[in-house]
Amino acid sequence: xxxxxxxxxxxxxxxxxxxxxxxxxxxxxxxxxxxxxxxxxxxxxxxxxxxxxxxxxxxxxxxxxxxxxxxxxxxxxxxxxxxxxxxxxxxxxxxxxxxxxxxxxxxxxxxxxxxxxxxxxxxxxxxxxxxxxxxxxxxxxxxxxxxxxxxxxxxxxx
Length: 158
Fold this sequence. Notes:
- The chain is mainly alpha-helical and 158 residues long.
- The chain has a single domain (27-157), classed as Arc Repressor Mutant, subunit A (Orthogonal Bundle).
- Helices cover 64% and strands 6% of the residues.
- The protein has 6 helices and 2 strands, in the order H-H-H-H-E-E-H-H.
- The chain has a two-stranded antiparallel sheet with strand order 1-2.
- Helix 1 packs across helix 5.
- The chain is globular, with a radius of gyration of 19 Å.
- The N and C termini lie close together (9 Å).
């Protein structure tokens, strides 16, 4: 149960009320945005989820799968499933870590090169999305998404 600090006051009759299913609306937008990025990244044979994984490992350095999943807000089984084709293609390695029970995800030279080439296509997708939605809308969307994620993280921590 959320703490009193996270409970919104009741809406008055004059205030706007959410209409429809938030999950459905977010999934609709997410599908369209994913299709948009996937279209651009197809030129280098990647999907947006794969580009995101390569980017996270590149930017964060070698790291444990659990830490990568946490940083990407993804559950471990989803991460494992998404890593498999990248490992099979030789773009990532999953090797033993500091002890026999740990593992670490490493970006290969081929993965780094692919990410570098894909970044141009990702940037084109981002710029096209900004033009289509207009920069102010994208900034507002990012703010709302960050606020929503922060609210979930606060609930998870409490």
